[in-house]
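call fold(seq) -> tokens
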Amino acid sequence: MHIDTNKLLNWIERCQQKQDLQHFLPFMVEGQKLGAIHCSRLPLLEAHPGIFICTESNVSLHPQLKTPQQRTTALDPVLRDWRKQEVFFGWRDEPYRVATAFDAEPLLLMERAATSLFGICKYGIHVNGITQHNGELCMWVARRSYQSPTYPGMLDQMVAGGLGAAYSAVETMVKEAAEEANISAELSSQATPAGVVSYCTTRRNNWVEDVLFIYDLELPSDFTPENTDGEVDSFYRMSLTEVVERLTSSDDEFKLNANLVVIDFLVRHGYLTPEMPHYVAITQGLVQQH
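ret:
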């Protein structure tokens, strides 16, 4: 299998863009940095002085909001108003934990679609569905719904989804596998956790910082995924060779972060080796460098 590592490095660099910090202010709660807000958003925040305090150095939630529940309750109607103003799109009714670290207690909950406005670090799961077909390793690839609020019609992992506030990584994986690909809990529970991919970039004046928990799931050769929640248009069983060809020959066929998950798979399973160009840059680029 020929792999154009220059193209792989391009995907890495697009996800790990250097940040121009002068256009962002830290988003603080209880003196702890939770995200970053673009300065163009300040008028939206300053319109709610009982909730946000904006200074030249940062944006913070008002200290009168002392508990996670108070912060969540105060922020919710503001976010719903911004939704009506089309400040952001794709409201999901999925509360996300906002915390200083993955295993830290949340300081508030926030609607998933709004988290990028505040530069909140988001967590998700991606599942590589792999199988053997005619003696060749294949990967099930999903085409996202053309009605999806994000990356409509693009290729993605067989199963992918964000971690809602009430779910662990493995619970999210099992839930999303059932909803997106009609995979039973008995089968999805056989998935192997395979580390994380993480990245930080800016997009449309949003600070985007994501951590993806990766799972590999080997599927029976006669299994065909079926979508049940409307988020997937179709599934394709592609040889790994075809997956790599699409990854390296098309500019934007795969969803941007899905490229990184495929590259991670190639590294972990020995298809990329230290003898190939850019190996160190590619492998190091799969995890955000702090």
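Residues 68-84 form the longest helix (17 residues).
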